[in-house]
Amino acid sequence: MRLQYLLLASLILPVAAHAEEEGPVIVVTGRGLDATPATPAYDTVVLDREEITRTASGRLEDALSNIAGFQQFRRSDSRSSNPTAQGATLRALGGNATSRALVLLDGVPMLDPFFGYVPFSAIAPERLDSIRVTRGGGSGPFGSGALAGTIELDSANAATLGLLNGQALVNNRGETELSGTLAPQVGDGFAVVSGRWDRGQGFYTTPDNQRVPATARARYDSWSASGRLVQPLGDSLELQLRGLAFEDNRTLRFDGADSGITGQDVSARLVSRGPWQVDAVAYAQWRNFSNIVISSSQFTPVLDQKDTPASGQGGKLEVRPPVGPDHVLRLGADFRRAEGDLKEDALSAFSGLRTEERFAGGVNTDLGLFVEDDWTIGRLVLTGGLRADRYRIMDGYYRAYSGSTGALVADEIYPDRADWEVSYRAGVAFDATDALRLRAAAYSGLRLPTLNELYRPFVVFPVTTEANAALENERLEGFEAGVDWRPMEGASLSLTAFDNKVKDAITNVTLEPNLRQRRNIDAIDAQGVELGGQLELGQVSFDGTLAYTDATMSGTGLAADLDGFRPSQTPKWAASATLGWHPREGWNLAATLRHVGRQYEDDQETDVLPAATTVDLFAQVPLARGVSFVGRVENLFDEEIVTRNQGGSMDLGTPLTVWGGFRYGF
After folding, report:
1. Is the pLDDT of residue 26 over 50?
2. Residue 96 burial (CB count, 10 A)
3. How far apart are CA 8 and CA 265, in angstroms?
4. Spatial CA neighbour of 238 closest among 267, 265, 268
5. How many C-alpha atoms does 409 have within 13 Å on its Cβ side?
6. What is the rounded average pLDDT of the residues 61-68?
7. CATH fold group of domain 3-665
8. Which of 10, 188, 391, 466 yields a CA-CA distance of 20 to 30 A from 446?
9. Which residues pair with 599 in a beta bridge?
10. What secondary structure does DSSP assign to 550-616, as a single string?
11. Is residue 289 a contact partner of residue 306, using CB atoms and an 8 Å limit?
12. What is the mean predicted confidence (pLDDT) over 286-306?
């Protein structure tokens, strides 16, 4: 058995062994340190558990889409997209499939060490308590990579989950979703063991008029299992252990075009809430990816990305010393290491024989030191911080052998690089009245190119995109100003105007009609406005967000013709609105309207992805003690959602889908 499975079992087995023990009332939280007074100085949105679990699809990315400005590289979710396209970003700072937003689960980065995508199918929404999204850069105590913002996922504790809960649903295509959680009290703390399994035949992503005999449904089959153990070690000290294992297999467009990801994560977190507050996290991750590319003309395999093992290790130490009631001082350091290798075979579309065998990979490391202070002066909060990152890009290589003779075709060893980068963030929040808050912030940030961007070429027929081992780091500079207004109980309105610029932005630059390469362009510059509102009137609630972003690219040299063009896959307009109704205790009825504006598939603005507006429905109706009926409808009006358009060759998103089933919890 591999080391990672042994480590995962070491976290989960103690949970099962103590599941029946009696103990005192739970006194631990299972969370990190509380948010600081300066958190409202930045554009922050919080999703509660109800908002996370009432989506029509039951997917985490669907819940995040309720925040206007959040997007993945493509419009499809994790049931019908290639995993490597699941990069998360905010504020239209996209342009390629890598995440420009940092995603943390209980303080641990969840981005794949090789590709930078988010394994959304592994993070079940029902395991979460809340999500806090900070739009805008400023890595600070979060770590490098938070160019477009930070998405913090907090797991639910036993008190929230209840001892036993689960749900089982089926849709009109016969696809199923099954999940369950056991959360017993263990000693003075608690444990959580959970699992989820999703499977289905999928739908045809290819339009009717483009289907061929080899066209396949977007089949998917994924599972994930998670275990947490939270125990107090004293009056103010808490230990949190977590393990996660997952596997996800998909088929896209053609028979045989199969992709798969696997992963195992373990982490330990020590939280002290005494006079000296401490948050210490250590983690290890193992991931793998495989993918078979099918020719769009011969419908036979042309590339077998058979093995892409990657690992990530890291940790963070944050200390908040007692410096008086008016200050919250944060001192700390974090470290991340990502290592990965690509092993793939190029195949002849006609004979099926291997024409070339390729290997590539490398190691990236980042050591960050940070200091930040929040100073409260009556109704005024001032905050400022500095961060220094020592990064290394090393051991990069690309090697290729002839498939017929085994002769060495290419042997590239790339020079190691290392340097320091300094970033900052600062903000101010002023409560002008009890109902009105004014805020402003400025920040900078850093993102290293991923191993995928540096060393791995890829093909989405008929377009080949080359890697680039000479890529420089992305650096963001930005500022924003906003106002939060709460005119009465249960009502709030927020407005933020921002200007963010990603210098040396990495994007896929067109060199020839069917050839692109990852390049640093001068910048992606995004200015815009974000609007959010909430209203609760008795049994009725409303949540809405709207984002307008004018994002443009600027470039010189080979990228000079990109000047003024919008980055790939980035809309100007995005909006989401949810109307909820709770007519009785335990009832939850909701309708969600979403709109995503027109996007472009490519950097030349030639292939259009039309705007799409969808309506989703959700209903939970109590039937008996602990048992509820759950009904969900995705894309009620069967809107055509174009997720890919390369010269007229298209993929489509989720059609009308109806789910029904039962949810149990006590």
Report:
1. no
2. 25
3. 7
4. 268
5. 14
6. 92
7. Maltoporin; Chain A (2.40.170)
8. 466
9. 609
10. EEEEE--GGGGGGTTPPPTT--SEEEEEEEEE--STT-EEEEEEEEE--EESSTTS-SEE--EEEEE
11. no
12. 94
Residue type, 324: G
pLDDT at 558: 61
**Separation of alpha carbons 421 and 318, rounded Å:** 20
The residue length of the chain stands at: 666
Rounded to whole angstroms, the Cα distance separating 517 from 403 reads 24
Specify whether the CB–CB gap between 507 and 95 falls below 8 A.
yes
Q: Would you say 68 and 43 are in contact if contact means Cβ atoms under 8 Å apart?
A: no
Q: Which residues pair with 199 in a beta bridge?
A: 176, 221
- C-beta of residue 270 within 8 angstroms of C-beta of residue 238: yes
Token pair, residue 490, equals 């249960």
pLDDT-based confidence at 461, cuts 50/70/90? low
Contact 540, 581 (CB under 8 A): yes
Phi first, then psi, for residue 136 (nearest 5°) are 105, 155
Q: Tell me the percentage of the chain whose pLDDT exceeds 70.
A: 95
Per-residue pLDDT at 515: 85
233 three-state secondary structure: coil
Token readout for 121 is 């199918």
Amino acid identity of residue 615, one-letter, is: V
CA 268, 230, 162: angle at the middle one, nearest 5? Answer: 135
70-79, 426-435, 458-467: least confident range: 458-467
Complete DSSP assignment for 147-194 = SSEEEEEEE--HHHH-SEEEEEEEETTS-EEEEEEE--EETTEEEEEE
Flag whether pLDDT at 157 surpasses 90: yes
Per-residue pLDDT reduced to its tens digit, 630-641: 999 999 999 999
CA 45/CA 66 separation, integer angstroms: 10
Structure tokens at 654: 């989720």
How distant, in Å, are the alpha carbons of 51, 149, 477, 488, 580 from that of 534? 12, 22, 30, 11, 11
Residue 379's identity, in one-letter code, is: R
Minimum mean pLDDT range among 123-137, 507-521, 585-599: 507-521
pTM (predicted TM-score): 0.93
